Amino acid sequence: MYDLIIIGMGISGISAAIYAKRNNLNVLVLEKSAPGGLLNKINIVSNYPGVGDITGPELSYELFKQFNENKIEYKISEVLDITIENKIKKIVTKDKVYETKYVIIASGRIPRKLGLENEEKLFGKGISTCALCDGNLYKGKDIAVVGGGNSSLEETIYLAKLVNKIYLIHRKEQFTADNKLVEEVKKLDNVKIIVNSKIVKINEENGMLKSIDLNTGLNLKVSGLFEYIGYIPANNYLDKLDITNEEGYIVVNDNYETKISGIYAVGDSISKKHYQLVHAASEGAEAATNIINKIKN
Ligand SMILES: Cc1cc2nc3c(=O)[nH]c(=O)nc-3n(C[C@H](O)[C@H](O)[C@H](O)COP(=O)(O)OP(=O)(O)OC[C@H]3O[C@@H](n4cnc5c(N)ncnc54)[C@H](O)[C@@H]3O)c2cc1C
Questions:
Q1: 237 pLDDT exceeds 90?
Q2: Model confidence at 44, in pLDDT bands (50, 70, 90)?
Q3: What are the Cα distances from residue 131, in Å, to 106, 114, 157, 222, 292?
Q4: 121 by DSSP, 3-state: which?
Q5: Domain 2-110+231-296 belongs to what topology?
Q6: Where in the chain is the domain with CATH 3.50.50.60?
Q7: Contact 172/194 with Cβ under 8 angstroms?
Q8: Residue nearest (by alpha carbon) to ligand 1 atom 30
Q9: Which of 167, 196, 198, 242 is the most exposed place for a label (fewest CB within 10 A)?
Q10: Does 5 sit in the ligand 1 pocket, CB within 6 Å?
Q11: Topology of 113-227 in CATH?
């Protein structure tokens, strides 16, 4: 049996794992996709202390390097369920059930979708939520970006260097992004800002994105649509535990413990004010330290 199983290998899970392993806990990390989590999809990080400007994949690489230097056990496997028997937590994956005394859930969030017809079908065929992964496919083309927060504007700045023209569509008058980003985007010659507008229809031709219709009656011919309209927690697999709020975020106390003793949660998966790297890293360390103290005392 493990002392601790961590679900998710983004910055919060990696941070928790490093603290746990360095305090001799028998720890396993389960990750369904790739080490680094969301970082692998971020173009540039400029506000993480100590590293200056760094690309998401570079920071992800550094984290994974440190993770491996600490010889932490991990498996690429999706967690499907958590059950509890006599205080022992059973972590269910497709291939195996793992037993552990403590759990840290660090499974992050996934991009919110517009919920329009053709959207699912055209993912990877014109529609994307990752400029870093897919931006190159639209070199010299006209595209749209939807959203008004930091992610949307940061990725617009990145994409503007690659594409011919960007329509930046926001449903409100004011952007919620930092002023510095808004000013930067306004200076870009190939970005046309369209506010107070919603995308109401996604049109396809031969299985590829052809154009989008706005509620103002405008039809924009674009070969790419990058969606940055927020995120929803990836917590569906936890439904039976009843530890999430109505928006799907996990509710924790000051120690990052859920209402179930021994089950902790950190990072973007929890209900909190700030969804940033530095907070996620700190929460991972906090939760692990609280567990270490419980085991040692
Ligand atoms: C476009 C964009 C730009 C950003 N820019 C910045 C920035 O400049 N500065 C900043 O501080 N923050 C930034 N952020 C926010 C920051 O990236 C997140 O707050 C942080 O990465 C969250 O880390 P996490 O470990 O909580 O989750 P994640 O990084 O999302 O990691 C969660 C991991 O859990 C895995 N997982 C999910 N479900 C399961 C399951 N059932 N079983 C196993 N594994 C599972 C996922 O595959 C993933 O690897 C940005 C976010 C985005 C989207």
A1: yes
A2: confident
A3: 24, 17, 10, 15, 39
A4: coil
A5: FAD/NAD(P)-binding domain (3.50.50)
A6: 2-110+231-296, 113-227
A7: no
A8: 108
A9: 242
A10: no
A11: FAD/NAD(P)-binding domain (3.50.50)
